[in-house]
Design brief:
Elements (H helix, E strand, L loop, with lengths): L8 H10 L2 E4 L9 H12 L8 E4 L7 E3 L11 E5 L1 H12 L1
Parallel strand pairs: 1-4
Antiparallel strand pairs: 1-3, 2-4
């Protein structure tokens, strides 16, 4: 079942920081270049659409997950990002780091 939910960017970044959003082990590592990250921010600044994020919400999250950013979160992620990991990691890294 799919449903569309709108979030403010600040809420998504806070949920990453709190450990509520994580990555399934099947996701590739972060591979975007600085140029690609800069282009993402440029597109956002210009008001261009930058795509959707697709999350898998599961109360019984499997053990094969990892965190976005520094891995010091104490909880297991409630939502796993299935599509948009490169964009979301870029946003988190630039804004929070």
């Amino acid at each position: 079942m799919f449903r569309e939910v709108s979030y403010r960017l600040s809420k998504l970044l806070d949920e990453i920081e709190d450990g509520d959003i994580g990555l399934p082990d099947i996701q590739r590592p972060f591979v975007w270049s600085r140029t690609k990250v800069r282009d993402l921010f440029d597109s956002m600044y210009r008001g261009f659409p930058v795509g959707y994020f697709l999350f898998w919400e599961n109360p019984a999250v499997p053990a094969g997950t990892r965190q976005i950013g520094v891995n010091d979160k104490q909880q297991v992620a409630r939502r796993l990002i299935v599509d948009g990991q490169q964009r979301l990691t870029s946003l988190y890294s630039v804004i929070k780091n």
